[in-house]
Design a protein that fits this description.
It contains two helices and six strands; from the N terminus they run E-E-E-H-E-H-E-E. By secondary structure, the chain is of the alpha+beta class. The longest helix has 18 residues. It starts with a strand and ends in an 8-residue tail after the last strand.
Length: 139
């Protein structure tokens, strides 16, 4: 099976942080991870008022969810990162950038929103991953 293609076409800004296009080959298993906030296993907010702490915890939660679907951070095709208006997005991204860095980066969508479903949450991270059959242990 051919690998997932992440493309940064000529004529579009070239960034080490994201690609513009991803092509997932037929036969890959798609894993969707819904928005993850900075909450612990009991649903309590972690890092109140701190975008860096919340980003790190939201990413940790996303990685846990990915693993439950048989995927890893390396299988992510697209991240969506939502920050509440006024949150320190530079600190938030700074807290997770090293884990998201890649020679072949996924697609990233980021936006500022008026609020999130978890009171006090400053960030929410969701993902779409694709696991190739070889990575699942299939022939």
């Amino acid at each position: 099976m051919s690998p997932i293609q992440r493309i940064r076409p000529a004529g579009l800004v070239r960034s080490p942080a994201f690609s513009h296009v991803a092509i997932v080959p037929p036969g890959a298993t798609t894993v969707f991870v819904g928005g993850q906030n900075a909450v612990d296993a009991n649903g309590s907010l972690v890092g109140a008022g701190d975008a860096a702490v919340q980003s790190a915890r939201a990413l940790q939660n996303a990685k846990t969810a990915l693993a439950a679907g048989g995927a890893t951070i390396g299988d992510v095709v697209q991240w969506t990162v939502l920050f509440v208006d006024g949150a320190d997005s530079a600190a938030g991204y700074g807290a997770i950038a090293a884990e998201l860095a890649s020679e072949d980066p996924p697609l990233v969508t980021a936006a500022f929103v008026a609020g999130l479903g978890v009171p006090g949450a400053l960030v929410e991270i969701s993902a779409v991953a694709a696991v190739l059959p070889q990575a699942e242990g299939k022939p």
